[in-house]
Specification:
Elements lengths: L2 H6 L4 H13 L4 H8 L3 H13 L3 E3 L9 E3 L3
Antiparallel strand pairs: 1-2
Helix pairs in contact: 3-4
Length: about 70
């Protein structure tokens, strides 16, 4: 997805930063999302869930510790 497509989906700046992070590294954890955006775990969880709902990211099969998110297009 292009930056413009992501903006049209209503992603906020933190979510856009996370998508770029995943494009570079292949995946992102909740903890990494918290760190790169300087936000709480709760906010990170909510925003990552929003990215999954919008089908930008997919969640790993693992839940809890060890879980991560990756691009839906993979």
């Amino acid at each position: 997805m292009t930056h413009e497509q992501l903006v049209k989906l209503g992603l906020n700046e933190r979510q856009l930063k996370a998508v770029e992070y995943v494009k570079e590294r292949g995946k992102i954890t909740n903890k990494e999302y918290q760190t790169i955006n300087s936000i709480s775990e709760r906010t990170a969880s909510r925003e990552l869930s929003d990215l999954v709902e919008k089908e930008v990211l997919k969640s790993s099969e693992t839940k809890g510790a060890g879980s991560y998110f990756y691009l839906s297009s993979e």
